[in-house]
Amino acid sequence: MRALLPRDEREQSVDLAADRLSFLVVSYGALVIAAYRSFVLHEAAWDLLGLVVVGGAAGLLYRLRGGVVSRPWTAVLAATVALAAVAAALIVLGVGR
User: Fold this and answer.
1) 55 phi and psi, to 5 degrees?
2) Global confidence as pTM
3) Rounded Cα–Cα distance for residues 92 and 29 (Å)
4) Among the four 7, 28, 72, 77, which has the fewest Cβ within 10 Å?
């Protein structure tokens, strides 16, 4: 699709920054709501957590497809996945109850 008006690099970078900020607000907002539902209301919050995970996976897949994933970024991703796996294992095993 062609743009209605020509855009310069500054406009594109501002758009990308705005999209990133929007994603962060929505993701962390969903995490806060999930924590509230889980700890205060004692309800399952897997639907909201799933949305956060799927949103992050979409960004990862887009970066992988574009070939812009760096080594430090991959290390942070691996550490995050490992930490999440440990947390999930502790929850499943009921440690801390």
Assistant:
1) -60, -45
2) 0.62
3) 25
4) 72
